[in-house]
Amino acid sequence: MSDHDQGGATPSASTRTSPLTFIRQVIAELRKVVWPTRSQMANYFVVVLVFVLVMMAIVSGLDYGFGKAMFKIFA
After folding, report:
1. How far does Cα 36 stand from its chain's mean position?
2. What is the C-alpha separation between 38 and 50, in angstroms, rounded?
3. What is the pLDDT of residues 21-36, one digit of tens each?
4. At residue 67, does pLDDT exceed 90?
5. DSSP category for residue 75
6. pTM over 0.70
7. What is the tens place of the pLDDT at every residue in 39-63?
8. Over 80: is that where the pLDDT of 3 sits?
9. What gap in Å lies between CA 31 and CA 36, rounded to an integer?
10. CA pair distance 74, 66, nearest whole angstrom
11. Signed CA dihedral, 59, 63, 66, 69: sign only
């Protein structure tokens, strides 16, 4: 296929939507979203917070360990 084929992959300039139509479509799509409840958000927040804290502890422990090892090797 060449760039001149009009197989529907790229819309031409005449089929572009106006900014107002785009905003209306975005709002329509956002109305379809199933938003989480307050309790679900609290649960998600706690899960993410615990995960981040655990990952911070792992990275900090590895950093500390490798730092100590480097000082023993090179000092």
Report:
1. 17
2. 18
3. 999 999 999 999 999 9
4. yes
5. -
6. no
7. 999 999 999 999 999 999 999 999 9
8. no
9. 13
10. 12
11. negative
8 Å CB contact between 6 and 12: yes
Q: Quick check: 25 and 17 in contact, CB under 8 A? A: yes
**17 CB contacts (<8 Å, ≥6 apart)?**
25
And the tokens for 47? Answer: 């899960």
For residue 42, give the H/E element and its range: helix 38-74
More confident residue, 12 or 33: 33
The residue whose two tokens read 């917070």 is 49
Domain spans of the chain?
14-74
Residue 10 has what DSSP assignment? S
How far from 22 is each of 17, 18, 32, 33, CA to CA, in Å? 6, 6, 16, 17
- In whole angstroms, give the CA distance from residue 25 to residue 18: 11
